[in-house]
From TrEMBL:
Entry similarity comment: Belongs to the trans-sulfuration enzymes family.
Cell membrane found in the keyword field: no
Provenance organism: Hevea brasiliensis
Cited PANTHER family: CYSTATHIONINE GAMMA-LYASE, TRANS-SULFURATION ENZYME FAMILY MEMBER
Keywords (A to Z) from UniProt: Pyridoxal phosphate
InterPro entries the UniProt entry points to: Cys/Met-Metab_PyrdxlP-dep_enz, PyrdxlP-dep_Trfase, PyrdxlP-dep_Trfase_major, PyrdxlP-dep_Trfase_small
Cofactor (UniProt): pyridoxal 5'-phosphate
SUPFAM superfamilies linked to this entry: PLP-dependent transferases (SSF53383)
Protein name: Methionine gamma-lyase
């Protein structure tokens, strides 16, 4: 709990009775081994690192961990509580006070997230926005300054451009992250505390040069915070130079469109400071994850790699076929994407180029008409925000998830009024879903929409 317990986040858990003096658990129980995490041992493969993370067994030997649903925890001796509040005893030795502080089930999910992202520690929160806001408020004080990408999720953009200046006197300069000079000029040494961007931007799929941007920020003493919600497994920002990685776990990591959750992955010192009794944003603002939610998510992360491979495979196939039809498609896996080679150089091998593609229909009316055909007549996908579901989810970003931005801000971010963001699902067969897409396009042709090539021109 207190600032002195900087390793508590990865090291909680009991040894089973009759264990040898040294076994696999000791790798995670020893403070000396903190930096020798699974992520380091297994190099650039996040799935291998996740598989090497400590497995938490159930209380009675179950292959799944038990759910610690208690809000509060008992102690055996009166003095123990004083020692816990002073920081002398903590979760690293299986002492818990209250589940807003630490919960064993949520801590286990944090270990999994740290392994996945290759960081020392992670803390899981009630939503992605709570993770983002907690990090920014921990790193920036009143009068602080943030440099951020122009192309961000609308909620994050609103937080930076409206809420933080009004409520906290924290200002943001928005930049084009592909313009290195613009980035450099925006950073004010001694005042700028955070450089914030998305690994793949929402919704325009601009790929950030994470190593270069991290180098520029670090040269000026600025912390780099990267939202990796669009590219779990595909990209590992912390391995590429970022300091902190945030996630909306609600998306691909959950995979079921039934959970709201977030995560902060970063140095143990930062996560610990966020849990400080007197100054920590996670401790004092209370964005607490429910233990039952953490249990659900812990059972889904092990197959994240398999799901992402299929998501990405289908996104690549659909984008390629859409391009052959002459449609205006934006997908980082295509060779004509401006950051295709950059993504190839950074991406983890064998996990693809991302599961989102953008189809620009130029006008909102035309985009809405296509989505209506795709959902209501051919069952290709669903008109819904969010991403990472087994069904394909479609939305017109300019009037939905980016609606918080002004017309000028959307123009600067490259968000067309007719831009359809598709989170490509994996239900059904690939050919079945493509046939449904073709039928929707034929209905568009019947209503006067034309494009470069006919549907029959696409080779299967």
């Amino acid at each position: 709990m207190a600032h002195t317990k900087s390793h508590a986040f990865l090291l909680s858990g009991k040894k089973r009775p009759n264990q040898d003096e040294f076994d696999g658990d000791d790798l995670f129980l020893s403070k000396k081994s903190l930096l020798l995490s699974p992520a380091v041992t297994y190099g650039d493969d996040p799935v291998a690192a996740l598989a090497a993370a400590r497995h938490e067994f159930g209380e009675h030997g179950g292959v799944n961990m038990s759910i610690e649903a208690s809000a509060t925890f008992t102690v055996m001796e009166p003095d123990t509580m004083r020692r816990m509040f002073s920081g002398e005893l903590g979760p690293d030795r299986d002492f818990f006070i209250y589940s807003r502080h630490f919960n064993p089930t949520v801590l286990n999910l944090g270990r999994q997230m740290a392994a996945l992202e290759g960081t020392e520690a992670a803390y899981c929160t009630a939503s992605g926005m709570s993770a983002i806001s907690s990090v920014l408020l921990q790193l920036c004080s009143s009068g602080g300054h943030v440099v951020a990408s122009r192309a961000l999720y609308g909620g994050t953009h609103a937080l930076l451009s409206h809420f933080l200046p009004r409520a906290c006197n924290i200002t943001t300069t928005f930049v084009e992250i592909g313009d290195v000079e613009m980035v450099k000029n925006a950073i004010v040494e001694g005042k700028t505390k955070v450089f914030y961007f998305e690994s793949m931007s929402n919704p325009t799929l601009t790929v950030a040069n994470i190593p270069e941007l991290s180098r520029i920020a670090h040269e000026k003493g600025v912390m780099v915070v990267v939202d990796n919600t669009f590219a779990p497994v595909v990209l590992s920002p912390a391995r590429l130079g970022a300091d902190v990685v945030v996630h909306s776990i609600s998306k691909f990591i959950s995979g079921g469109a039934d959970i709201i959750a977030g995560a902060v992955c970063g140095p143990a010192s930062l996560v610990n400071s966020m849990m400080d009794l007197h100054q920590g944003t996670l401790m004092l603002l209370g964005p607490t994850m429910n233990a039952k939610v953490a249990f659900e998510l812990s059972g889904r992360i092990p197959h994240l790699g398999l799901r992402m491979k299929e998501h990405c495979h289908r996104a690549m196939e659909f984008a390629t076929r859409m391009k052959k039809l002459g449609l205006k498609v934006n997908y980082p896996g295509l060779e004509d994407h401006p950051q295709h080679e950059l993504l190839k150089s950074m991406a983890n091998k064998d996990y693809g180029y991302g599961a989102l593609l953008c189809l620009d229909m130029e006008t909102e009316e035309r985009a809405n008409r296509l989505m209506q055909h795709l959902q209501n007549f051919t069952q290709f996908g669903l008109m819904a925000v969010s991403l990472g579901y087994y069904e394909t989810l479609m939305s017109v970003s300019g009037s939905s998830t980016s609606s918080e931005m002004s017309a000028e801000e959307k123009k600067l971010a490259g968000i067309s009024p007719g831009l359809i963001r598709m989170s490509v699902g994996y239900i059904g067969t690939l050919e079945q879903k493509w046939s449904q897409f073709e039928k929707a396009l034929l209905r568009m042709q019947d209503s006067g929409f034309t494009y470069k090539n006919s549907v029959s021109a696409v080779t299967k």
